């Protein structure tokens, strides 16, 4: 059997999968991203999820284990890598866990093709060029301070900015502006509403601006033109990011992942329109991608694909 | 006599000026911006600067006192306002200090006209419409998290972003890219240079990205096209900001203030070009503007203008 793990910022999930694709066990634990948690805690969470998936199974029978995670670059730090090795060593697995980026796991969750593009847009945004199921290069992914165009952070920030433009300009707030002020806890007729909105936005960690992003989708669905423009700009940015990782005329799959590119998201709909003519796929659960990558490690690329988490 | 104060983030300076415009005394102290310092410390610094300017003079003879400062909106908090009243009360001045925004002081430092526009671009950026020497409305000034297009923060961030684009893309670094990596302490041939640059940029407070801005001016002067484009984008943004505060056809002065719009700055040069046809002035020292506003309070708008700090 093999094990796949999806280690995110808030939760880690693991699947044990048999050679025939049957799911043998599942496990879960807290966040396993070493960028958002101390490395020893992240490593322990991943180990706990793996141990959970192997309950009643023999760890030594694990032929391959792939851990999809954000923040793999953190593992280039030898001290961090050592923490992970220690935590994993205690599991007694038959194979050493192989960390891959969450982008590689998302790509593999959607397609068995070896080459293509994956665009991930959640709180942040990044596009990756995938070759032989490995991340060959990236576009974007600079983080909220330096970039992340089209991400939830960026969309939320645009929502606040356009609301400030309206408050300082015409004073006319549309549905989006009213929703932004309500989310920030500022009355639209409050004196100094603009200043209070700036203060509210700065009172929380910057990435929390992403909390305003769902308001943009809702207002765009209701026909708010300001929200519609933000959605279009986000779609343009994410389309540019996707194309930046591709050769001219390349016809490999483009896999869309993350909440901003979900099936019901207006940004996702527009990106699929802009990329029409290309095979565009929605990512499935990243843990399925990681489990299949582990199956490929153990059994080769014709390994059956586990297609759902029980 | 009257007193003018320029209360900045790192220093506060005060001038005592006679009715005929002669400077009678100068004083200085630490930062007096209540956004970057605890209010009691900011208030104490301003009071110390005023007391210094009045050394050997009679505080009760002060007929007007104007304090130009960033962060005046902080004074709408009654607790903060009370701190300032306490500190100023102890000075025994003949007039209660009147806080004005640094933008109003910058405008008054350059012109005796009552109406116009002032654009301030230092670490942040803002444009203000001035009517009867008061700030009537603003454009921009949302702060680094939400805006500040064309500011030193924004220019520095673009410098880092374009360097990342080059590192992830062609790999060819021009003069600006090399200077950015050197400033960040990252060797251009270091493995993972892009990732190390992202880490270095995120290791300091966000506004410290402004430290990369002077590299853009220098590289643009040396003909680096990447730097040239950033300078043009900054000039476009600041020009837009200026025009957003003006009526169509308005012919009042436009006062440029802040390091990004200084005489020798390439951004300032471009903004002056873009606004050619309008009376564009460079701000003088804000403390002169504050002192003249105090003189207008005391003696009317024909009060002589103090024209330099001794």
UniProtKB/TrEMBL annotation, chains A, B:
GO-annotated molecular function: kinase activity
InterPro entries reported in the protein's UniProt record: ATPase_BadF (IPR002731), ATPase_NBD (IPR043129), Euk-type_GlcNAc_Kinase (IPR052519)
Keywords annotated in UniProt: Kinase, Transferase
Tree of life domain: Bacteria
UniProt domain ATPase BadF/BadG/BcrA/BcrD type: residue ranges: 3-294
Keyword Kinase belongs to the record: yes
Name assigned to this protein: N-acetylglucosamine kinase
Organism expressing this protein natively: Prauserella muralis
